[in-house]
Amino acid sequence: MYDLLSSEDINAINSATIEVLEKTGVLVESDDILNLLKRAGAQVNLEKKIARFPKSLTNESLQKAPSSFTLYSRKGEQYVVGGETPVISSGAGATWMLDLETGEPRPATKKDVEETSRLTDALEHFDVCMATAIPQDVKSTVVDVMAAEAMMINTSKPYFLAPGDGKQARYIIEMAAVISGGMDELIKKPVLLGVASPNSPLRLASHDLDVVSEFVKNKIPITILNCAISGATSPVTLAGTLVISLAEILSMTVVAELMNPGTPVMLGMCPACIDMRTANATFGDPENALVSVANAQLLKYYNLPSWTCASEVDAIIPDAQAGYETAWKTLLPLMAGTDVICGTGHLGAAAGGSFEKLVIDNEIIGAIKRILKGIDVNESTLALDVIDAVGPGGHFLAQKHTREHLKNERWFSKISYKSNVEQWKKERIDVWKRAREEAVEILRIHQPEPLEKDKAQKIKKIVEEAERTLTGPSGA
Amino acid sequence: MTDEKNIVNEICNSLINIDEDIFINNVKKALDLHIDPAVIIDEGIIRALRTVGEKFESGEFFLADLVGAAEPAQKVMKELLEPELKNKSDKTKSKGKIVLGTVQGDIHSIGKNIVAAMLFAAGFEVINLGENVPAKDFVNKAKEIEADIVAASALLTTTLPGQRQIVEMLQAEGLRSQAKTMFGGAPCTAEWVEEIGGDGYAENAIEAVRVAHRLLGLKEKGMDE
Q1: ipTM above 0.95, yes or no
Q2: A136 in reach of chain B (CB within 8 A)
Q3: Best of A199, A204, A226 to disrupt the B interface by mutation (most B CBs within 10 Å)?
């Protein structure tokens, strides 16, 4: 386990966070929730919409949330969030895709969400699916409902969805209930995890609070995830960024646990920095990896499951930059014990999606899982007998010990290049091309466990209703 | 005359050094000495911002320096210098008036604020309407001040249609030929701006400055070369 922060550091960050919540407070853009907070003991200024959270309220609310919860796939497989094993998700939110045929960036479509979901369904290291892209070819007011439909048909893995508003959240929950066979079943065995975000700095917007409310009132698990941009919407110092980020996600957690005590929540950070030369928000920086590591440590302190957007990179194509940014952003938070990671399959500061990057990230995560297993030291692995049997000058290839331990000891790459230069001269291939071939082949042959016809039809009806009610004349 | 020159130079230098308190004091001192506010603006502030912009372009200064200089400069212009200008019925020589904000339903501010600071630093007059701004407020403000450009940011796919509303409403009000439109924000693309009939798309704050110049047929100083 990688411990970046000392226990003194953690105590200092916690005290500072409590002080921000007590003294500076948070802008809460909902009178109902301000009143709820007031009744619970928060100091509320209704006119300025500022709530200040006493330490006792924060601590008591956090204790109501469970330290772990279980998600289910359509097929009934279980994924414990906050358990021993990290849960790996694809990433979400790209507005452009790297076209699989041309290799050129172009606007993302609903078909991309269908195909990346199907690809995610096939890739063995992904446990959960997010909508890789925000489709640009559907009405913008139903964009998340459309993405949900594309996912639900094309993968049986659990669904992480971040609806833009409460209305879409309601339809998406209804759709998930169809999959589970009713709302009671969905609540008992959730196939859906919501995501809602505070707005940095220190602002809970009404449309995000609506999303929280829709999930929480049914006790469907929700991730509370902020995206502070260090240097712009949070302090340039990483300690200060951690303080403000924690204050934001803890304040929204207090709201969730007041709305419906005991609701399963996961907390997390999607760390970004402002690039001081281009003014872009950047995700691939080493500082972001450090924030993700600290996030895992801090949430262990609060005994709550942790999430981070790992694997998000600034590189536009799956090149060496994409590789090294992914490596440090994914390896370090997983080494620190992060419970759930997403952000995989992304390029261009999370604005871009890529089929090839999904395949490459699957490869990287496979290797990281091997790293996390560490080195097993016991009588059999110390290999004294076989060392003695082979003796000086022999070899181990033909030994039974080698065959017996091979699968446990070794990671087997799928797309990484392992041949020598003479072979490469004949093939002239790199990892981008290999990943492309793999993605094309998976999309050609892989079919997900089909969704029952009647359920698919019910979901289609809900989507049509959402389209009727949510699309106005000015929709994009 | 040398006193006047000295104090205006000090204004310029304190802004380049981003010594906010010294800068404000220098401006107050200059006003006490009855130095023409137009001179303070041109020879002190605009000159300093041009230097800051050049240092940013060359990589010596960072975004934090550029915004760090632009924000106090904007504040001093608004609070100390513009009231004086009105008294003398004088006019600032800005490159153009830009009404800017984040569209209705969207509370994201940072990108839009960086754009505002950079446009201001480049010599435009910027009226920042804030966040969650209804289309009609953009249009009313544009009409009131005879804006050259209306610029709107949207950070959510769901609020992007607010940009289209601005174009439609400007058209309905007959302002489309007077005021150019310029859009940006994460889900916004050049294709989208073309589809809604907007004039300019900028993928970031630096590009926004270029686009503003292009839309008004102006040449950039120290930004493009």
Answers
A1: no
A2: yes
A3: A199
